[in-house]
């Protein structure tokens, strides 16, 4: 199993923009980040392509990027209350926290064998990572790496928004964004030998 089980990007109203779970399904031995999809089909940098395009006789189809089990979706939903609570605490303190860690909300809650961590941008976009439970020194190292992961996902989201053809306010359907997420998750999980 992999260390990072699910990753979600949510808008201000908590609507899912991007949800991905089951990263182990496309990380067999080593991932391919040159546009190859998990099913062996190829997509270009705009996120088009796929196995169904040739069979259907139609144009290319975008990759399915929003997938997570119902169980993972419930866990993400449970973490939202904890995000609201942490944000209220930050506001009540007058925002007097370390500026580098201002967006990183840290550990939100444990749910079953998972630990949920949060990150919130200045514009209210929330990023939630669901990580398999670990304790001790490994946990401290994981926190440092999670900050880096969240920061990378934030940069990917900003780059997605800079695309003039991106659908603002809707689900993120982009091969480039998905490929970037896969690379970030692969790097994170590789550090933990999963």
Automatic annotation (TrEMBL):
GO cellular component, as recorded: cytoplasm
Region feature (Disordered): 32-60
SUPFAM superfamilies: SNARE-like
Pfam families found in the cross-reference section: Sedlin_N
Transmembrane intervals: none
GO biological process, one term: endoplasmic reticulum to Golgi vesicle-mediated transport
Domain of life: Eukaryota
Signal peptide boundaries: none
Xref: InterPro entries: Longin-like_dom_sf, Sedlin
Protein's name in the database: Trafficking protein particle complex subunit
């Amino acid at each position: 199993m992999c260390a990072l089980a699910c990753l979600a990007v949510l808008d201000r109203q908590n609507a899912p923009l991007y949800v991905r779970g089951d990263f182990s399904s496309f990380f067999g031995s080593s991932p391919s980040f040159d546009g190859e999809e998990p099913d062996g089909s190829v997509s270009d940098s705009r996120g088009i392509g796929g196995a169904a395009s040739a069979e259907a006789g139609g144009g290319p189809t975008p990759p399915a990027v929003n997938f997570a089990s119902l169980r993972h979706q419930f866990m993400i939903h449970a973490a939202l209350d904890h995000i609201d609570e942490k944000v209220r605490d930050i506001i009540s303190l007058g925002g007097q926290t370390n500026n580098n860690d201002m967006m990183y909300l840290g550990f939100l809650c444990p749910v079953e064998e998972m630990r949920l961590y949060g990150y919130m941008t200045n514009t209210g976009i929330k990023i939630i990572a669901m990580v398999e439970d670990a304790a001790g020194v490994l946990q401290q190292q994981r926190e440092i790496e999670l900050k880096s992961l969240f920061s990378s996902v934030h940069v990917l989201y900003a780059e997605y928004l800079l695309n003039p053809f991106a659908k603002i306010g809707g689900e993120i359907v982009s091969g480039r964004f998905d490929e970037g997420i896969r690379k970030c998750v692969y790097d994170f999980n590789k550090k933990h030998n999963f």
